[in-house]
Amino acid sequence: MKKLRLARPVIFAIMITLTYSCQSAWADSSGDNPEQPVFFAPEAADASVPVPAPPPKDSGLLWLVNPENRLESNFVPSSLVKSGDYRMRRETRAAWENMLAALNADGITDLRIQSAYRTYSQQEQIFANKKAQYTGEGHSEAEAEKLTARSIAFPGASEHQTGLALDVTVNGRLNGAFADTEAGRWIAEHCHEYGFVVRYAEEKTHITGIIFEPWHLRYVGRPHSSFMVENNLCLEEYAEYLDNNRLYVFWENVRYHRVELTQDASALPLENAEDVSALRPGSEWRVVTVIRKRPAAALPALSVFPPHTGNNPFLSSR
Ligand SMILES: [Zn+2]
Q1: From start to end of 47-129, where are the E strands?
Q2: 128 vs 122, 162, 289, CA distance in Å?
Q3: Distance 200 CA to ligand 1 centre (A)
Q4: CA–CA separation, 245 vs 239, rounded Å?
Q5: What pLDDT sits at residue 251?
Q6: Where are the domains of the chain?
Q7: Mean pLDDT along residues 244-265
Q8: Is the model's pLDDT at 305 over the cut of 50?
Q9: Are strands 273-277 and 165-169 parallel, antiparallel or unpaired?
Q10: I want to staple 153 with a disulfide (CB 3.0 to 4.6 A). Which of 60, 157, 248, 291 is the partner?
Q11: Domain 73-219, what fold?
Q12: Residues with catalytic annotation?
């Protein structure tokens, strides 16, 4: 079994409780935000009713896309670019190229993309083809649909429609044997360093509902990819983790990423954000990710708060 959990001494994640160090970390850049939209209330408007700011732009990098969170049939990601014969989001291509350079430097030169961006209608076609195969084998309509859904996403439920997913392999075949190739082992260990996760892990099939797919990579960006791997969370669990905890800090040598899920992102210093993304398509909540230099005095004030413990004291106190 390929274990995604990796021991990496230089990177570790710490959940923080509400501390002054955390507040002051925000305060150092909470001056006027020139990009903040300015609203003028109409003269007749009731001044006591605040005009809500629209949620900030959603990069979509963290979108949980699955049968419960499907994309619209007309959804097409922004910034689709080509890499060879395949289309993907610009961010995916940049991360893929960085990762490929590192793979090559390690002497692995046989990894290829097998599939990337997929339109809604392509998903419909793939699903229908697989289902027809099962009905052809004598399964009922309902059985065939159930069997198909184990390996093929329902239309709109495929991450490939986001432009953030890549299927990669070494011999043109997408199967579990990829995990035991040199490239497969390298991917399992290092892809998170480039912002990717192996989306459908063997030990998470009961949560994702998808078979083990060591070849299916999803770009979520850092530090999310590394936090997920360090804490052995699939994307469903990571979304739940953020829903419950709303805030964590990910340390990396002299820097840290501060990750917060908020409904009022306008209060955060968005001009310094590395990324602002909803957790699910259409949600108005935003995950705001900011990178900072590690303040010298911050570490002693932080308290370790392990993931998945449910209630974050930071939240219950505000
Ligand atoms: Zn895939």
Answers
A1: 80-83, 86-89, 112-115
A2: 10, 20, 39
A3: 9
A4: 10
A5: 81
A6: 8-28+55-62+223-318, 73-219
A7: 85
A8: no
A9: unpaired
A10: 157
A11: Muramoyl-pentapeptide Carboxypeptidase; domain 2 (3.30.1380)
A12: 213
